[in-house]
Amino acid sequence: MTSVIKFLLDPFNILWFMVAAGLVCRLVNYRKSARYLFIGTGVLFLVVTTPFVPIKLLDSLERQYEPIYADQLSDRDASYHIVVLGQGHGYDDRLPANSLLSSGALGRLAEGIRLHRQLSSSTLILSGFSSSGRKPQAEMLRDAALLLGVDKESTRMQTEPGNTLEEAMVYAERFSGEEKVILVTSAAHMPRSVMLFERAGIEVIPSPTNYRLKGSWRNVWFGMPSMDNIEKLRSAIYEYAAILKYKIV
Question: C-alpha 149: how far from its chain's center?
C-alpha cells in the first residue's frame, strides 16, 4: 500500500481534514455545512479514540489464528522451514543486533526461535531488505538470532523482499521444497500474510505473535479517548485495505 493511500486512510488525518473543512466552510459563511462537519468530527473523534470500534476491528484480525506448539504438530520430527517476516530495525554501532531490531521484529524473531528450539529438524528463514542500502533486515535478524544462541547453520536469509508479497514470492522461488512451512508474523498481519503465501503456492502453518490485545482487553467496550486506540484502528484499517487491494488485483 502506498504512502499516499496510508495517509488518506489514517483516522487521525481524516479528523484533521474534517476540522479544516469545517473551518473553511465557516470562513466562507457556509454555516450549515460547517455545523454538520463539526458535529461529524465530534462523532468520529469518539468512534476512533474510544476502545469499542478499534478493539473490535483489530481483534477480528488477531483472533483468526493462534500460536502453535510442537506437540500440536502431527509430525514434529519432519523438516520445517520457520519463515520469520521482517518488521524494521535501526543502526547504531554501540548496540548489539537484538537492540537494533524494532519491538515488532524482535517479537517475531523470539517466536521463531521458540519454535526452532522445539523442532529438531527446523531451519529459520529470516526475511527483509534494507530501504537505506545498509545492512538488510534479514541479516539483522540473523545476527540477533546468533546472539541468542541459534546455530548459524540453522539459518537462511532472503534479503531481497521489501514487502509481504515479495517475501512470499522470493521464498517460493528460492526455498520451497519438501519442508513444511511455519509462518511467523504479527497477529494482525497474519491473515494477509497467509493469503499472499497461498497465492505464491505455499501452504503454511501460521504461528502469530505480537498480539496487541490480550485477555480481558479483547472485550473492552468503554474507556477514555486515547491515541493508543487510534493506533489500533490505524493498524486494522491498513491491514484490511491491503487485503482488499490484493483481492481486487
Answer: 25
Between strands 204-206 and 80-84, the pairing is: unpaired
Q: Where are the domains of the chain?
A: 3-62+227-248, 70-206
Separation between Cα atoms, residue 193 and residue 198, nearest integer Å: 9
Name 177's Cβ contacts closer than 8 Å, sequence gap at least 6.
none
Q: Is the pLDDT at 48 greater than 90, yes or no?
A: yes
Q: How many CB atoms lie within 10 A of CB 119?
A: 19
67 forms beta bridges with none
pTM of the model: 0.92
Classify domain 70-206 by CATH number. Answer: 3.40.50.620
Q: First-to-last CA distance in the chain? A: 12
Which residue do the cell numbers 503454511 mark? 204
pLDDT reading at 125 higher than 90: yes
Residue 151 one-letter amino acid: D
Rounded to whole angstroms, how far apart are CA atoms 233 and 12? 10
Please report the pLDDT score of residue 138 as a whole number.
96
